[in-house]
């Protein structure tokens, strides 16, 4: 075929995109559907969605995309899907959902922790990880269902991730790849397979292997598009659905981060820093490195769970003036807020923010904090403090992973909504003291999934060749090293000390409230 295309679906928290991508890395056509209701909450902190919501949205986008393309899907050689992580579905004996999807941002917990074997409990206590072990047990959706919906769990024949269920709906095959097995499930991330019975971490979520899906490798075909799927979506029957990986893994690949001198920053609802390495290492103690999309690759990662969600929070609570101005100017409020970042100096005149509105895995007692207020501070100081606070947390994650791996990062590639701002990219370059690079599109996750699709279909001999043809540098933000020195001092002498100093108060708050 002269101009082959990959049909890629990128399922996010707030929206879904369908796109046709060519071998030059161009998104030829794209349809984005923003969810009117991304999730619903039966109780505060819960986040669920109906499984058919995602499948119906995918089919709707597919039909619209096919109609937009002059050749329909005639030039499509393969289909890929990349999706949000740690969102789980219970299926019955006929692979039909028994309840709605529990999404990754759901914060429900079990009331009890099943007693662990004495030697596991002792080992974790000696390692100082007992609280983390208990927390991981309590936040595992499967454990919550076992405790609170035993009738549902009794009928559950398969417990799968959301993309695995969509794979089944598209092909009739309940299969997925290691790069999608990112969640609270008994998965051995180092061996890229299901945990053995004797794995010390299995106690956090002990689901029998028979209740888990079959695994295939990235680049392998999950199955062929079925006749029923063609009728519902317009995707031609017989096209291969190719295994790729999670949205973050595909994003890292789409940013061209496949060697040890580059890091990928994602400025999305969850902010992350990911490395690429063929050597397995834990980014933090007892925190696994996730399987990357290229076979044999790992993506160790540090997450800031409420990341650039904080901008939405700030906009809702403090930025009515900018929202009104944005409507008048016909632009997004973020554009106006980001322009105003230039009014505030590095370090926000002493205002420092710790962005743990939702605590991390290994810091379960953390909370958000802003310190250093004085009479000079304004709303825009707070806004810039949010950007810098996320930056400090990502710096902390990157430095930690450099120490644990021996890697030395020389370039940073960025994606996600926040990366569209020149001001945020420049602040990031100044904070890290490294070049910050933007590629030709902020749809890096869809691009990465398409790269994997073209490699799988033999259009490129390797990921390196595919990246050389499909990923193009658009902007480079060089760091202001004088500002970097200011940020380094603030990081080492202030930010690094906030958590340890406030931890006793966080624990006390938790007990009192």
TrEMBL record:
Limits of the Carbohydrate kinase FGGY C-terminal domain: 263-457
UniProt GO BP: carbohydrate metabolic process
Keywords, in A-Z order: Kinase, Transferase
Coiled coil: none
Pfam families named in the record: FGGY_C, FGGY_N
Superkingdom, taxonomy of origin: Bacteria
GO molecular-function terms, A-Z: kinase activity
Transmembrane segments: none
The family this protein is said to belong to: Belongs to the FGGY kinase family.
Protein name: Sugar (Pentulose or hexulose) kinase
Organism phylogeny: Bacteria, Bacillati, Bacillota, Clostridia, Lachnospirales
